[in-house]
Amino acid sequence: MVGQSTSIQSFFSTRTSPTKVIPPESSPVPGDGFTAEELDNALLPVRQDNWTPRIVYDEYEIDALMFGLNRVKIVGRLVNMFESSHTTKLPKGLGGSVHLVVKDDTGAVTIRLSYTLPPTELRLGRLVAVWATYVANGDRGSFPCAVAPLYIKIFPEKDKSCRIRVLEGAEFANLCRKPLNYQPTLMSLKAFARGGSEVIDAKILVVVKSVSARKRVTKKDGTEAYVTRVVLMDDTEEATLSLWDTTSTTPNDWQPSHTALLISSPSLNVSHKNWLALASDTFVDVDPCIPEAERLRGFAGRKVKREHINPTFPYEEYALWSIIKPNERVLYSLADVDDRARETPGETFEGYLSMIIMDLNMTTLRQQNMLMCNECCGIPIYANAKVAKCKHCDSQVSLRVNPRLIGKLVDESGCITSGKLVLSDHAWTRLLGRSAQELIESSASTLKSVEHRMLHIRITLRFWWSEEVGKLVISEVLE
Ligand SMILES: [Zn+2]
């Protein structure tokens, strides 16, 4: 099983002379039409991992490791990664080195991995197996990670007796997910941002809300670096976590409104509101095995659904309800709908509304290239097209008519503001007198005249209210 997994070694070709190392100037420049991930994949050799241990290694739980042990194997998850100081001069032929903090259910240990080519498959939360020949004590001299005091140095490309291998597959999914010294007294994001970051060993539990595209930026000191920004949330607040260089590819494994992170001792940037980063003593437990994570995921799912810029029409739920619905046709006012939804929460009902269109945004949205929209990876996507590419995951996302196209609707009892309705595709076509495709293809002057025609006319809408959907659903538009 282990043999099928990938390892760092498999990404390196054998080099006979360090002078053959390709200078960084010749690497492809960004913006040549390929994403960073495509470039990484194309530039790396085919994954092959034929390494088998030639000597016997004893497998240890991490808290059983001791200074001076020889030939050990450990299995754990990556809870932190950071590059070794850029100021120290690297030996010839060495591309760099990275500190990995590996944690199992018993303890944590620091691994210093030296490489000639950066190990792109190492990401926070991934399970790794490490074979090493010696365990050192990190207490002496300057040591970067005080929370994981034992220290293992490996350089798999040079030393064939050590190795690091990512373990993937269903059989490994639940291994090493128990947080260390866990007590369910977590700090809320709000408390953390308002002074709680001063508390030693502060722990926050958050869910990933959205992930930005990975960008190359120039830092204050003039050096360039990759960064991915991840928006995190709990039930009190939101925050942005910046993941730099070695950790910037990690969020490719994360799923918005599902991936939970238990972060111990993150650093808080005081100059930006709620900006978090990883410090050398930070631990990030990805999808920790604790009941609070499940509860928070449920909360995040509901919140994200409520805040979605363009929720899907609930075709399935509506079809199920249509089978059992009472045979009645009632004309409501907006105030009636509001009263009924509040008086009998949980009740699902259907009726008709007679509304006047007060405002339309067709020409403005066309100009702003925002006629259609959807979300992917928690990020809004707008375009005057039926599909668009997600900047983070590069997948083609199908777009629906932007609900903000309807500005404001009023009746005698109240009004509905922009973007609050969920229309079926059929209802959109009926309302606009054209399909989504025809809407995109319409010229500015055509849309202007459509707007003029529709403004201040009275329309009858068949609506459906269900607490689970949480928005007024329009299934039909009548003259
Ligand atoms: Zn995406």
TrEMBL record:
GO terms for molecular function: single-stranded DNA 3'-5' DNA exonuclease activity; single-stranded DNA binding. One of its GO terms (biological process) is resolution of meiotic recombination intermediates. Residues 1-27 are annotated as: Disordered. Residues 1-19 have a biased composition (Polar residues). InterPro entries: MEIOB (IPR052469), NA-bd_OB-fold (IPR012340). This is Nucleic acid-binding protein. SUPFAM superfamilies: Nucleic acid-binding proteins (SSF50249).
